[in-house]
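Form 7-S
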Amino acid sequence: MRDPHQVLIKPMVSEKSVALMEDNKYSFVVDKNANKIEIKHAVESLFNVKVLNVTTRIIKGKVKRMGKSEGKRPDVKKAIVTLAANDKIEIFSSLQ
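Output:
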């Protein structure tokens, strides 16, 4: 198993992710090579919570232009983690 800090890159904070927190679901940007089991163990070990479900998706990077030159933003993998009913992650508590 990899180090949990290598699996979870950063929490995602958007309007949709804050709305999902009411259903006890939290969003994270994760390593592109991480699988659902690694994500589950990383969240459980870092935040001392019980994870019920992990949903992942890869967001393709957009093509952007700066004048004549064209570049591409990197692809990002994000995970939505569902926690048990009595668990909360404290770093998100000020956003609700």
